[in-house]
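Hi,

I'm pasting everything inline rather than attaching a file, because the server keeps stripping attachments. The sequence lines come first, and each chain or strand is labelled.
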Amino acid sequence: MKVPILYNVRSVLQRPLSTILTALGVALVVAVFIGTLALANGFRTALVRTGSDQNALVLRRGADSELSSGLPREAASIIASSPHVAAGGDGRPLVSPEVYVLISLPKVFDETQVANVVVRGVSEQAWTVRSNLELVAGRRPEPGRGEICVGRRLVSRFGNTAIGQSLKFAGRDWAVVCQFSAAGSSFESEIWGENEQFMPVFRGQVFQSVTFRLRDPAAFEEAKRALEADRRITVDVHRESDFYVQQSQLLDRILRILAILITSIMAVGAVFGAVNTMYAAVASRGPEIAVLLTLGFRPRSVLASFVAESAIIATLGAVLGCLFALPVNGIVTSTTNWASFSEIAFSFRITPDLLAAGLGFGVTMGVIGGFFPARRAARLPVIEALRS
Amino acid sequence: MRHLTLVRANLGRHLRRTVLTIASVALALFLFASLRTVVTTIALTGQFGSARRLVVTNATGIVFPLPLAYANRLSAVPGVQAVSWANWFGGRYGDGKRFFANFAVDAESYLKMYPELVLPPEQREAWLKDKSSAIIGVRLLDVFGWQLGQNVTLQGTIFPGDWTFTIRGVYRPSDAVLNDDMLLFHHALLDERTNRAGIAGWYVLEIDHPDNGPRIAKTIDDQFRNSSSPTKTGTEQAFNASFATMWGNVGLLMNTIGLAVVFAILLVTANAMMMSARERTAEVAVLKTIGFSDRTLFGLVMLEAGAITLTGAALGLGGAKLLYRATNFNAAGFLPGFDVTAETLLAGIGIALALMLASGVVPALRAARLPVIQALRRVE
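And the predicted assembly:
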């Protein structure tokens, strides 16, 4: 027969201070667990959302990022004429040969700090090739007019990025005519303009990458084989979504390892706290436990009952921890993605899965912390305990 | 001193509880020291740099090169005593999972510019003579199992192809903040193989006096303002600091976590002290009856709390210091010179003392103010 859970709930309420202290300890660990993983999640999501599995990204062979790549004009036209490129509504190929550079911009809150911001020169088709793009204000830059569109996330962090202002880089002024959003992806930390205008002012007659919409997304491997085998060009073809996932890997791994390391060390400390609390609970309730055993509850039930009691405290803590962590959801932060060397803004992202993992983590701490004290309770010598 | 026996006996009574509490304090302070050291190390790399060295980069952005022809014009600027240049190479070794910095540098002037790169004279000569050779930081010997005299092949990401270098020298940085996992090779080789002679990534200048830095920097930037490649000149320290800030707000993140850690452990310790105190009510009453003063009893509880937190601190802080030193940890090259500073250790001890106060005061006061008669009534 099982010991009613109500017994444990009442016992927990009997010593409120000790319960609260232990639960708060668990809560803090769970909050840090959720918070740090939300950071890693947010970063990865920003990059994962950048790439689409319907697009292919072409770089010079051996280049590990757009920054280190370079493709001559001829290569771009060869790629554009490939049968694997989808055609837009007007019949032109959905392809964007792009100029990709980093410029130094001072941060708005501290002019002495500079960040490396991506400047991307795109073709007119780029706005269709990238399907998650949306203008949030202004109008699209017109070809040949020295106009740029800035990612939504840049606006608050760098000066001269509001519509109507002009931003100076590469030795001239560029008029800001619009802001765009891109579903929280890293494009939102970029400045876009026309490739033909960026080309001469930056690196001369060379593109860094060519992105195109696949005619048949399922036939990516075929397109890849065809282009990489083409003797006229030396390129690597990546599925756009895979490429950005790979770009996120280095930092994502660092963040996750850090999160796991920190929280597991903290968790051990919190488990020790739970162990202390539960041992004290068992020690002070000797006669009670003896009565339970005398009444005929099996030692196994007593064990389960005390583990449950510890789990109740931990669950309370875990729920509190989730509540503590929730406010960080959506907070925007930025860091340098070392794989591309550019600064990316992203927001902390708490998902239901993450909350569930946090809860599970907290409850596990309680179960582990409660096990040994519960075993002692189950093995209590009844006669002696009754006498005390 | 006889009281110490009492404190020891009290600590030993619930030995498991004492040990677990000490262990959680130790873990917390280990974590605190680690997190704090990330922040101090990044700050330190941002402060590294001789005040007598200036760095000249392309004003548009760090990824844009500068003409090599600037070298002569830079050395003609009054106050500039030496000029060297370097270029980011971005080569990968093997699967590329272990990132390390590799540069093409103007070998002779670069070594003169950076006396911090300590290299045995014969290795230095050997490197300067052999244009297809490279020098590496001492850590790379361990990381990749390389040896002096060995050929290593990097895959160029920016400059395509396989690049094979003979390792002619192994340097040790005299300043721990300087990376000990770089590979440096001859700029001349890069020029030769890429057919893009006449381009440098950035220049490093040695100037006559730190005070002249701002003036010289301005002279240089003015001189190139209207050229095709305008420059941005600053102290080496500012250059390094700009890299340090690229991490974003690491400080805030680490400090927030650190605070949570310390607070969580405060709860554990406070709870343990409170439990101990509660169990000893009767005992305290007896002690009072036989003549222990309120003040002594207060002191006894505080001493007990202090013994727990300070032992924990010694274990946690000492453990962090020794562990990182013994393993020569540098976070895969991202945090060179990772070492727990004295300041961090002091802050850790401060936290231990604060923990002692916060967890001990309530139980200690309770012990001191305990009404004897009532408490004794409960004694059988």
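The first helix of chain A runs from residue 5 to 14.

If the labels don't parse on your end, tell me and I'll reformat.
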